[in-house]
Amino acid sequence: MDYVRLGTSGLNVSRLSLGTMTYGDPAWRDWVLPEEPSRPFLARALEAGITFFDTADVYSIGRSEEIVGRALKDMTRRDQVVIATKVHGKMGDGPNDKGLSRAHIMSAVQASLKRLDTDYIDLYQIHRFDPHTPILETMTALHDLVRQGMVRYIGASSMAAYQFAKMQHAADLHGLTRFVSMQNHYNLVYREEEREMIPLCTEDGVGVIPWSPLARGFLAGNRPRGEAQTTRARSDAFGEAMYRTEGDYAVQERVAEVAARLDVSPAQVATAWILAKPGVTAPIIGASKMPHLEDALAALDLKLSAEDMAYLEEPYQPHPVLGF
Ligand SMILES: NC(=O)c1ccc[n+]([C@@H]2O[C@H](COP(=O)([O-])OP(=O)(O)OC[C@H]3O[C@@H](n4cnc5c(N)ncnc54)[C@H](OP(=O)(O)O)[C@@H]3O)[C@@H](O)[C@H]2O)c1
């Protein structure tokens, strides 16, 4: 496993991050695995050298954090892993149970620490932009968490590049902690981030850690031409709404074609593509079956030629903003 710095921060992370949205409570989403069948994925990831784990308070409404916290505590030493979680989503019915106000951030971090059963969060990410809270209020609250030792680094997730730039600017102006990472929606069928966000991050020394590098399984072939082949493909309304244009299917078919020629799986090709894209620190992969994780690991050794990279990208058609 290779380890790389998260942007220009001093924090080293594995070249792959294991996303843990898939592990939690099947009552939350049909395709989510409960605790016992989830643990082997965390064990195999650790064995393979993955040290970077991504969760969020909203995944299975806290259950994902509990499972991740318990497994990592049982399987490794706390200082050997980087635990990333998120705040912003709705965690209750009260008026302050969501968003990026100081009120919610301070309560949410305590709840995440408790569920993860840890004294600190390595990377605390804002899950989305909050247009209803002053940026300075959010940045000051996040800075206070770092000062108090509850959080070591802060990151952000999907938002407009101008919003991210404004938040970083507020941190600079007021001597507050800057975000070290951007967790954005980026894969072979959603490349709008190449316009603004990725160049901004690259120039600014911010690590890019894309979510859904396989377009929620679309690029691995779990829904060819709308024919849902897995539980997730059948029940993942979010994915179904995002990936289904002719351009998307054309890219999906090229991924399958290149994979057949190289005698590897489509998932390996799509993962190797994102690993090779400039600015990408570590894609956050999802695995609901063990071969998914093995394919992601194998992709680390798959080097695509410049011709294959261009061939995969050629049919792409621009999309409206998706996934904010
Ligand atoms: N910040 C955000 O807003 C945000 C949003 C989404 C996700 N995330 C993070 O990103 C992580 C990954 O997201 P994701 O699960 O959507 O990632 P993904 O890698 O795009 O999709 C994972 C899905 O692809 C399929 N798959 C993976 N490898 C495969 C293989 N080798 N062969 C066939 N199918 C394969 C599986 O689908 P089946 O289960 O159908 O077999 C699996 O559930 C999440 O766990 C979460 O941590 C963050």
Automatic annotation (TrEMBL):
Gene3D superfamilies named in the record: NADP-dependent oxidoreductase domain
Keywords: Oxidoreductase
Domain NADP-dependent oxidoreductase residues, every copy: 15-314
GO CC, alphabetical: cytosol
SUPFAM superfamilies: NAD(P)-linked oxidoreductase
Source domain of life: Bacteria
Record PANTHER family: NAD(P)-LINKED OXIDOREDUCTASE SUPERFAMILY PROTEIN, NADH-SPECIFIC METHYLGLYOXAL REDUCTASE-RELATED
Protein name: Aldo/keto reductase
